[in-house]
Write a structure and sequence with these properties.
Helix content: 55-70%
Strand content: under 5%
Largest sheet: none
Order of helices and strands: HHHHH
Oligomer: single chain
Length: 157
């Protein structure tokens, strides 16, 4: 079977992935913080959600270089940010959203979450093998007949 070449990630693609991870993380943190939790709790919960998002991408795209970079960036960029944020003076702060600003604040969080997800999905798709390049695995009629006979013999035994 022919091996399909997978494009390498450019530095620009890596930067877009890093920015997208941060957008997703900040958007999730924003929504959790708006729900009444402390900033530290929001950071921790958003970190877990971002990590789960990337794990899901890894499960469905295990050999994709963009996904591999997401895993590395998650560990190197967000982990260090989270550690420093958790000891910062604002970790116990709660967000006080004025009622008249709630919709605007909520929309900002949605925008960041969507930017993050869309940015990561775009980079994953950019390095996926093209459908036209994939070669289907075809069986000859003789191979199909042999497979059917083997299955029949196994069931009969």
């Amino acid at each position: 079977m022919n091996k399909i070449p997978v494009p390498k990630l450019s530095e620009d693609a890596k930067k877009k992935i890093n920015d997208s991870i941060f957008d997703l993380f900040i958007g999730l943190t924003w929504h959790i913080w708006m729900s009444g939790k402390t900033l530290g709790a929001a950071w921790t919960e958003a970190y877990g959600m971002t990590k789960s998002f990337i794990a899901g991408k890894e499960k469905s795209n295990p050999n994709n270089p963009a996904v591999q970079h997401m895993k590395e960036a998650m560990v190197s960029k967000l982990s260090s940010f989270l550690k420093s944020a958790m000891v910062g003076p604002t970790k116990d702060d709660k967000m006080n959203v004025p009622k008249e600003q709630y919709d605007k604040y909520y929309a900002m969080g949605v925008k960041w979450v969507n930017q993050g997800k869309d940015g990561m999905n775009e980079q994953i798709k950019a390095v996926e093998p093209k459908e036209a390049a994939k070669q289907p695995h075809t069986l000859t009629p003789e191979q199909i007949k042999k497979m059917i006979m083997n299955q029949y013999m196994q069931r009969a035994a």
